[in-house]
Amino acid sequence: MTSPTRLAFIGNSLPRRCGIATFTADLQQAIAKTHPDVTTAIVAMNDRGGPYEYPEAVRLQIDDTKLGEYASGAEFLNAQRFDLVSLQHEFGIFGGESGNHIMTLLSRLNMPVVTTLHTVLAQPTPVQRDVLGAIVDVSAKVIVMAEKGRELLRSVYDVPADRIEVIAHGIPDAEFVEPEAAKARLGFSGKTVILTFGLLSPNKGIEVMIDAMPSILTHRSDALYVVLGATHPNLVRREGEAYRKSLVARVRALGIEQQVVFLNQFVDQATLLDFISSCDLYVTPYLDEAQMTSGTLAYSFGLGKAVVSTPYWHARELLADGRGVLVPFGDAKAIGDEIAGLLTDDVRRERMRQRAYAASRPMTWERTAQRYLGLFEKALDGNVLKLNARPMEVTTPPNSLAPPQMQLGHFLSMCDDTGLLQHAVHSVPDRSHGYCVDDNARALLVSCALSSLGDPSLSDALTTRLAAFIQDAWNPDNGRFRNFMSFDRRWLEDIGSEDSHGRTVWALGECARSDIKASRRRWAASLFLKALPAAERFHSPRAWAFTLLGLHAYCETAPADAEAYELRHTFANRLMALLSSVETPDWVWFEEGLAYDNARLPQALIETGFATEMPAYIAAGLRSLRWLMRQQSSKDGIFRPIGSQSFGGKRAPPRAFDQQPLEATATISACLAAWRADGNPIWKADAGRAFAWFLGSNDLSTPLIDLETGSCLDGLHPDRPNENRGGESVVSYLLSLAEIRQIARGAATRTNPEWLQALRS
């Protein structure tokens, strides 16, 4: 077995007030104490209440709302060469939609991850299911604290049985003692103490227990109900102490002020153990069945206390076989009757205490630490075997197919001394249809992509020719680009479409950032700024999205351009408003129908949100892209782009044909943007499926590309491929190939120091 020597724990940490903070600190300390040769550290998540005065064990803090800090956290863990990361997961402690920000960190780690799930939902939302699935995918092992958790992971989330381990919640190793000495220390002598402790919130069911107290007092007039714990910080931030005051008022209305004590404290472990020791009975009247783990229940059980509880999942397992008593949810009479019965039957209560204490001995933190370390060793050994078996994994593309070589022969044959021709008959350029700025803008994007990839790039003369076409398309009289030009170089219109203008703005922004020639970068930035104002008047969502992609690139070169920065938010907010006005649970989209270049809309929101640190943009982009990918998947799981026969339909399922390369290219870019934003490996797999469409993994099982020339068929009809190989198709394929080759080489944007620096600012 490979034993870890450096362990990192990710989660909340004391002195932050929550159960996971206590668990993370207890587990870290247990391992540090029982194995002093193992170096341990905590990466602590900060909420709005932070930062906190953490102990030395906390080596790094992450603001849960700042995506860039998650990426920095991965850099730190990799640089410090930790052997393994133990993740403590609960949806509410990480930022992003359903806590998806954590994938930005996990996906960048070089070491195995073992995840402890503190909650497993029986009815997750689609986003929660996707997020948890992504975390499981990157985890070598998954730990739950109850058998119910294992059952749900298998039945709801399809997690393989060999990935799941059940390790009970740890407990302090305390002696079995009678309560009198602790009662004396706390001023409870002469009382029969009933205890509830933990952060106070409405789901704890304290009202039910208060309502049961008058009945209990008729049997034990010396009963004292102690409610120990501060109000949950999130509740305090929302409504102050209104909830606590409502409980006090309830007690007052029942006339039992002397029999119910509220202690608004978050106590240390020694004080907590004293309170537990002092009680004659512990009660958890929780209202939610779906509570997978309760640290308060585990601690009281571990100190050998008689427990009365509602039948939430953890309690149902822990208190079975006479180790405690279960009562229905929200039933004050049942709770009162059972507590009164136990408090008036010393023999029964004592037997229950002894059974609980004996059953809890394997749960001590020392034993729990041993089990965790044993599982960590298995994860490390499994990781070594995986690396030995798959040494080339980092150099293969998302769908495990070796990416083709970059071949430019057909693209070059489609270019003349004017620019890129629109159409071809089979593979022969068709001059009768002339040129368009759309395709030449895409060709300029190809030039930028190739210059940064290290593959054969376009000649300076050809790139200049493409730039000259765009320059000539500019109509300074109306501040718009023309689109169509005849073969004899006559412009066929004074104003092109909004979409063609937006796409050209995108190409100019990318050229301003990525072109290898400084003078051309300056030209692109200048024309970009001239063309930008017209886009503000556009009504096309795709034109907004294309412009946003251009702004994303341009703003990296001009971070001080406040007007450009504001325009990003203007266009992004327009897309957000569209989505909000159209979206329903079954139709998560910006428009009433699906058209062309669909994936560029979520891509624009994702990239803008990532660059501007606006989680709402990212969440909306991921949500709509996730829905789009469901529409673009066949029953067999292959990528099926939105067919052009779907255009014009209203909230209708997409038609399968005709399929065009443009859709696959947009999907690849959007999925890789999503992967860079939240780290979910599913996005890389989806990008791989979309690229495999070019290679023959499609409805016709027909490759669209010629590996020798780099040409690409114009699409797929229901019964045959379209044998023509026009300009749009070849640039679409080359753009996708450039992205896939970049990923295959491990040269993804996420490793760009300037990009990371911008995120941290």
Essential attributes:
single chain, 761 residues
Structure commentary:
- By secondary structure, the chain is an alpha/beta fold.
- Strands 3-2-1-4-5-6-7 form a seven-stranded parallel beta sheet, with helices on both faces.
- Helix 17 (437-453) packs antiparallel against helix 18, helix 17 runs parallel beside helix 27 (727-744) and helix 23 (600-612) runs parallel beside helix 25.
- The longest helix is centred in the middle third of the chain and has 25 residues, at 365-389.
Sequence stretches where pLDDT stays below 50 over 5 or more residues: 384-401, 747-761
Q: Please give the order of strands in the largest beta sheet.
A: 3-2-1-4-5-6-7
Helical fraction: 40-55%
Structural class: alpha/beta
Task: Average the pLDDT over all residues and give the rounded result.
Answer: 90
Radius of gyration: 31 Å
- Given the structure, what is the number of helices? 28
Distance between the termini: 42 Å
The major sheet is characterized as:
7 strands, parallel
Q: How many strands in all?
A: 20
* Broad shape: elongated
Percentage of β-strand residues: 5-15%
